[in-house]
Amino acid sequence: IVITKDLHLLRSHGIDRVYEVSFPSEDQALEMFCQSAFRRKTPNDGFLELAVEVSKLAGNLPLGLKLLGSSLQGRNKEDWIDMLPELRTGLNGDIEKTLRFSYDRLKETHKKIFLHIACLFNGTKVDNLKWLLADGDFDVNIALRVLVDKSLISITRLWKTVEMHSLLQEMGRGIVSAQSSDEPGERQFLVDSKKICDVLEDDTGTKAVLGISWDISEIDELFTLDEAAFKGMRSLRYLNIYKNPLKYNEENKLYLPQGIKYLSRRLRLLHWDAYPMKCMPSNFSPANLVELDMIDSELEKMWEQTQPLVHLKSMSLWRSKKLKEIPDLSKATNLEELYLADCESLETLPSSIRNLKKLKTLDMEECRKLEVLPTNMDLESLSKLTLYGCSRITSFPDISNNISVLSLENTSIEEVPWWIENISGLTRLLMSGCSKLRRISPNISNLKHLEEVDFSFCLALTEDSWHNDPQVVVDTPLGDLDLSHNTFTRLPHSLVSVKPEELNISNCRNLESLPDLQTSLKILRAQNCESLESIPPHSFRNPETILHFINCFKLDQEPLLRSSVYKYMILPGGEVPEYFTHRASGSYLVIPLLESSLCGSFLRFKACVMVDTDATKPTWFNSIIRVCCLLKGKQENHFHSVDLHILIFVTRLLDRHLVLFESCFPLNKDSDSLAAFKYDAVEIKFGWDICEIKACGIQFLL
């Protein structure tokens, strides 16, 4: 076994079977700390809160837990309390010495990237980081790979963000502070709110400053920012003025009586939460800007003239509620992300937006005054368009044939047009709450990559809205179709041709019947379909199908109970059906066993439990039915096994219901038949945390 922090060392020796050890959980970290501090798994009496805080200060890093625990071992409570302030503000010397070893062996260019991440970009998406650092004299890709291999950073798999451990971040920031301990205005990066205030108030910022990350929610008293506060910082490239999310709604204590007259023309990142001015500085030059984020600003317009924005990759003006227009973007030819959500005064988009051939994401959620989009646009790179809540939009957007996600919820769109088939890569079409939607083209069936369609709460839809086309043949099944909370009385037969794997018709209270659904169906949610009466026989033939008919009190149950195949089903009912050969009141039953029943590998049976409603339980249910199987013998020998069934539904039971499912218990895991133990009875017990089980039954399967 080879233990190392250097992944490259393993690769260079042809070792490809590598196990990456993750950080311990909070509970595990506390236990590790206690082993070192108290020589036991739990804290001594009276030390719990202190131990929890110190283990968190170690950031769940085993090295930190061990060294901090050793340094506090044998000390009394008063000593712990006295040492806490020092632990909160700086690294333990032994921890820093160990962490510095890996940093000191880096190349100078890789050290620069490490310090950028420690001071400014911990938690930033990899792509954004590459954009922002692209002007340097180093290869960002190689540097990131080296830092990952040296275990100095990690990259999350899901979100692709760069993550640095809190102790490494603290070490990096300490290295920058040491660059000029007496004059913070001569450091590369400023991150301490108090020192930033001092530098700006005393006008001591110099060209050495490359980046500022300022949490303005840490300002204790009203702070007046001079109009020329940033003038001395001619090399400033990254300016991040933000509010802590936990204090976001607190009063803004940053005051700009005369605005800002100077911002470095070298700025690549400008992020300013709650920017208080109506426009940007008149002499502001965004020629080098890569990312512009002005969230919750008071901006009414950005600037007057067309600006050279060739480097701009991302622009976010979220919740700038007074913004009436966005600037001419004709020269922002590399823009990939444009976020305008909640710009509720924005009425139009400039025609120059058609020049954004690299734009991938356009988000205009809740732009309630926006009525139309510019015509003749072909945004060839656009993959996601969000118009959620743009209630004045009446026409289906025709701006790109390469979109994969269309979010059009709560708009006034009246029709899904025939040319939707031209958007061949569409995977998600979301139109919930489109109350004026009346027509859906059958050509939607020609979209081969569609995974999710949501037409819930589209109250103008009727059974004729989705026009039938008998010529349509669909080879690729749709993933998720949501038609819930609608008023039609029957589903269109053309729905069958779309072959949804998951169909939600919950709260369609006028729906009277269902067509014969295809075998591709895996989940049917039909909660609260109070008019539903009939379903064709043999509609469900997939053993993996999940069927929810909660509160469908008019439904003819017999065809479902007799002829359906499913994974589990829930429907109204007050008695366990007679074809369950073994039935009992309550939650368990004991059944005599024949010796032949135990000769196979499994004991299989179909189960039914009848449950009563519980008005005290919440509406959202995500629960587990527990099935316990206990084999009993005359010689008091036992064999015990448990099976779990996870049930998920989102409505309250209004009366008694039946839950039907299949259970299977292994009998001879060690290849020894249980028949030799002469078991003569089986006790089967059911448990469910959200409902009381009134009766149960089983039917053995071969």
From TrEMBL:
Superkingdom of source: Eukaryota
Pfam families per record: C-JID (PF20160), LRR_1 (PF00560), WHD_ROQ1 (PF23282)
Protein name: Disease resistance protein RPS6
Lineage, broadest ranks: Eukaryota, Viridiplantae, Streptophyta, Embryophyta, Tracheophyta
Ranges of residues in domain Disease resistance protein Roq1-like winged-helix: 108-180
GO BP annotation list: defense response
Domain C-JID: 571-700
Keyword Secreted: no
Gene3D superfamilies: Helical domain of apoptotic protease-activating factors, Ribonuclease Inhibitor
Alphabetically ordered keywords of this record: Leucine-rich repeat, Repeat
